[in-house]
Queue: 3 jobs
Job 1
Amino acid sequence: MSLVDRHVGFVHALREAGLPVSLAEGLDAARALRVIDLTERESLRAAYAATLVKRPGHRPGFDVLFDLWFPPSTTGLYGRRPGRDGTSVRPDFETADRDGLRAYLARLLIDGGDAEMREFARAMVERFGRQQAGPGRQNWFSYSVMRALSPETLMAGILREVLAGRERDGLAERTARQRVTAGTRRFEEAVAADVRRRIAEDSGIERIARSAVRPPLDQVDFLRATRADLARLRREVHPLARRLASRLVIRQRRGRRGRLDFRRTMRASLQTGGVPLTTHFRPPRPHRPELVVLCDTSDSVSSFAHFTLLLTYALREQFAKVRAFGFVDTVDEITRFFQPGADVVEAMSRLATEADMIRFGRTNYGHALERFAERYGDAVGPRTSLLILGDARSNYQPPALDVLKSLAARSRHAYWLNPEPRRQWNTGDSVASDYAAVVPMHECRNVSQLTAFIEQLA
């Protein structure tokens, strides 16, 4: 494969993985290749990263794809490197027993360089990672390498050697533990990278690239987010809350004029013979808007509900008043769980056990809306922005559209965020189009779409 083919394939793979790479940026990367030493792989990586990567969160996926499309050379892997005294400082990777290999790995975990770590990882994948899958076929696995060497069991021996009689539980031990943990993580990543490279050589780079990279954090689907994804998404919540509050304030100022300024209007009318052709108004009194959040907390949208409740928690600092309500087939106010200073994880746990949101356990939007209007209807008023979060799937129960119309009419603004893809609206028990005819409904499957929704409020 020529360098041009690799470049085109690499840029295409980045786009498929969700990284925003424009045609102009691809050309910039190609021009950068003309002024670097192409034999220096890390220089090549740096040139591509400088021209194609826009956000730190995109870098892990970029590195995975770079290693697939521009793998390191594997020639001369197993030569013996002499030490300072002319003797070998490492075992023969092909013939050494596991104790010798583990001893060498222990040294790498403490003070091994990246090049040594990658070289050792490639050798161990070659020796332990191969499994025959049939005549002429072979598979590669990371877990067999990790099981053979068990780097996580080397900590005790390394600490005995490093501390050598010094006090335990001190700074030296903590430092050593951190270095070993970081070294173990580097070794695992190097093994995984080499396994991906070998599978790509056997099955095709394009096929492996599509499955090897998780989408960037801002494109992780809420309905498929893992616990680790949600933990990372917490960092995105507060900036979004500030932007949402500021956008709603802008809409409020544009959509409302202050009281008539009689004196300015009369002064201006002197220019037109006393006829007030131009009217002047006093500026509206500035204030932070009020917000009511009505959130579906059923299991079908649990990850989305988790993120939106985190958003609700952050919004409390940005609005004059925030009231939050959760529902499955009945509704309960959950504002009390998100008091200022409350731990958000503890609040989520209390909400799941203490809130009264479930009668029979099957989502019923119609009954939830009716109960909301009956019990909490006074929460929605002319200064209130109403934000409804849910997939609009009501298990074939009456949707209570008249109740929703009444709530939307009383509010200043009303919006509905739906975490399902638009193509799935109105399928099965979804009544998305019926609700969308009353309240504007927006597809909101990830942080990127939520950000776009917030931006268009201006």
Job 2
Amino acid sequence: MKRVYLAGPPYAEEYRRRATTLARNANWEAVDPMRRDFRGRTSGHEREIVDGDLADIDASDAVLAAFTHPDEGTAMEAWYAHRSAKPVIVYTGGSPPHPWVVYVATALHADLEDAVEALTKL
């Protein structure tokens, strides 16, 4: 089964829940970095957080990135995946994408369902 890394803001629980269900229905395993939840206690754990995220991206076949709101971590994860030649499927929620997001995106979709559907075409 192919694996998709769920990049997105730390407090985007609804996105992660929906994306996990949609990915499962599309025969993809969702890799949620928030299973290592450091919210409220990131100080002193930066290396552990970033190394874990990078390892998860390396072990995934694609990245689904929620750019519904600006988020530095999501931007860094998308850039890393792009530079690693991993497909980056972007979900915007209808927000206008930043030029850097457009640059790294393999595909851009306003709807999460369409973004996950794009995974099946990889």
Job 3
Amino acid sequence: MARKLKSDRILFTAAVLLVCVSVVMVYSASAALAFDRFGQAYMFLTRQAMWTALGLVALAVAMRIDYRTYRNETFIWSLTGAVCVLLVLVLFSEPVNGARRWFNIGGLGIQPSEVAKIAAVLFTALMLERRMHRIDELSYSLLPIAIVVGAMSGLILLEPDLGTAVSLLMIVGMMVFAAGLNYRYLVGTAIAAVPILYLLVASSPYRLRRLLAFLNPEADPLGDGFQVMQSLIAVGTGGVFGRGLMGGVQKLFFLPEPHTDFIYAVIGEELGLLGTTTVLVCFCVIAWRGVRIAMRAHDAFGSFLALGFTAMIAVQALVNISVVLGLLPTKGIPLPLVSSGGSSLLISLAGIGVLLNVSQHEETS
């Protein structure tokens, strides 16, 4: 039977610990850069603190809204449609570093692709709950998901943002697999995706250069291999205990984007193996508790929601950490709950809030 339970304290503690690490490390990683560019050492810290406050409010609100409230077809279709419109409109925004991913509102960057993750998880959870009894009848069960999520991923790809598009597909793929889809379909899809990914990489000079740099960064240490080389130097010089907070060297104009995509490397240099392991353990705890919540959810909709939001954080963390350690080609994907970036932090904390609410309605014996 289902009964009202307190929220998962272990999950909450892991998430809050990462947010605390974020505020400290964003300042440490960005102070010199912010002072050099803007003459304000606290600029990125101020923004991160503001987004952290908004994110914690979003977490508190989401934690108190019964997740079954979202099981509303009109609401989900409206949200999905609005997100698709935003993904189209952002393509006409001012480019930043050659990409059109942000709306600049009051000096703050808002990424529709982050909101697309929420919409995709909600839409997929609704479709799977209603159609999982015929999951292997692809035209009935998965065609709506393929059309909607495929459209979102395609629009994100046009920004261009291959990393987020692939991450979105991976999140939905995990949810579909959990619904009981025969693994042969997933294997077949993965095989079919290989030539598509090859064409996407081969047709884009900068993606091809990133791939070649990943395979052999030492061949061009001052060019395309610069990011990964500096990242590995930062992690390697940290040792077990690190250089000490604020004592990092690579963030001083050597490591590109030290407060966003490569903040894990700064943690490695300043807090050492102990710091990086602590962060990694927190993400593992979030993944563990999220999967546990999904398995014990009161209904299928809550189970798919929990799995989707868990995957949203875990997949992004895995990709970011792998890039920092040179295990994947460089992607512009932040470390959730830690990197500087308002949209990612806000959406991640909202997802944690939904997870905590689902945990209040766990099925117990």
